[in-house]
Amino acid sequence: MTQYLFDITFVTAAPFWALMILAPGWHRTRTIVASPLICVPPLLIYAVLVLPEIGAFASALANPDLLAVQQLLGGGVGAAAAWAHFVAFDLFLGRWIYFDSRERRIHPVLISVLLVFTIMFAPLGVLMYLLIRSIRAPRKMPVPITFTEA
């Protein structure tokens, strides 16, 4: 069961990545990817893996120690759960990059390349995107809201 859940985890996220990377301008991409619920399938896989072992996970994560976390993640359930965690949160971050870059009018080809990189190395992809967005296309600042007393 663990192997099967590991195997299908990325499959549950791949269609959304494909839309953001291969069809960023298609009107249906924006509609489909608009919901953060696209992250639910890998999150459910994570829950199926972690909940039966919640005691072991809680023990290792409540007071993190490198050896304890290494042992937890070194087993099949721990590795599959970590993979589901990565896939879910990487997709959430990729979704944010997609929408933020569209709002800032950063060229979709650049973002598609960056999203491919983000699939593989999400923290580095997000870091690169933050650098690109700060240099390339700062968003217009909204008009500040002021409150006056009546």
Lay out the secondary structure:
Elements: H1 2-22, H2 27-33, H3 40-50, H4 54-62, H5 66-74, H6 76-103, H7 108-120, H8 122-136
Any overview of this molecule?
The chain has 150 residues and is mainly α. The chain has one domain (2-136). 75% of the residues lie in helices and 0% in strands. It has eight helices and no strands. The longest helix has 28 residues, at 76-103. It is globular. It starts with a helix and ends in a 14-residue tail after the last helix. The model has no long low-confidence stretch (mean pLDDT 92).
Short description:
The chain is mainly α and 150 residues long.
Task: State the main characteristics.
single chain; 150 residues; 75% helix
Count of beta strands: 0
- The helix fraction, in percent, is over 70%
Number of helices: 8
The count of domains is 1
Radius of gyration, whole Å: 19 Å
The unreliable regions are none
Q: Biggest sheet, in brief?
A: none
